[in-house]
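Sorry, explain these tokens?

___
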Amino acid sequence: MFYAVRHFTRFRYSRPVWQSNMEVRMHPRSENTQRCFTFQLSVSPRSRIFSYNDHIGNIVHYFDIPEAHRHLTIIADSLVDVDEPVELPRSLGSKAWAEIDRMIEIDDYWDMLMPSHFARTSPELEAFTTQIGVDRRSGDPLQLLLGMNNKLYSAFSYAKQSTTVDSPIEDALRRREGVCQDFAHIMISMVRNLRIPCRYVSGYLCHDASHDDRSTDGATHAWVEALLPDLGWVGFDPTNNLLAQGRHIRTATGRDYADVPPTMGTMKGSADTELQVRVRVTPSEAVLPPDQEFASDEEWSRFLEKDQQSERLLHAQQQQQQ
């Protein structure tokens, strides 16, 4: 299935800032059952954009804006083809735990086994793990992870704005509610405690009327991938009690959210910041169809030109004051 993805991000500042440096992780990965055919990144104020591949294979774009500005707008357009993965077996058998131990002994999965900034153990996590009965005696690895996916979904409510991007997992564990990032961090922490390599996945989920997803349409999404014998990295979406399949579009993987935020940067100046993010994922043949929520390409061009005119005016005013 082809998907057209448009990811809109805008930072508004209460007063001019300058020397903005930004990294962007919005380029869908091309691997396994997913292929990114086109990707275009637009920035206002205009800036030259560079890219590199980080140590995990994520494509990172970066740019800087030295002059003063009161907004920063980033628009990423992608065309991605995602196939359905191979159907999983019902179980991996009694020898699967020994095979996992052998895998982590001979290969380097240290990053995805050790605690990380957001995915780490705590008394609250250990109490929850005991409550839902998660340990290696609970079944073979695949069945245990499927059960964990379901139990997290059942034990927690999805509540928008109940936590922030910097919230520790203890906040969600105490409240029994959170967003997709919290669900992912809690599951990663429990899976790593079982000595199964597990990583965080940042991306998008295509919502439609035929699926009753709890996660929010119009936003980014997060889930986890665990490494299993003979299967490789298998995706689990505890927010929606799903296996990550044809509707999940992967942009970046890491130890947790701290490795793969869609935008990360710095700027000089003292200003309050207002952040606006909108995401649209649409089944597509080859083009990005316009709709009422997101403007057409021609309208986006006029929108960006208006922003650029305001920045030129600000720059001219500053030149006159010097």
Notes: The chain has two domains: 2-82+262-321, 96-245. Residues 297-321 form the longest helix (25 residues). Residues 289-297 have pLDDT under 50 and may be disordered.
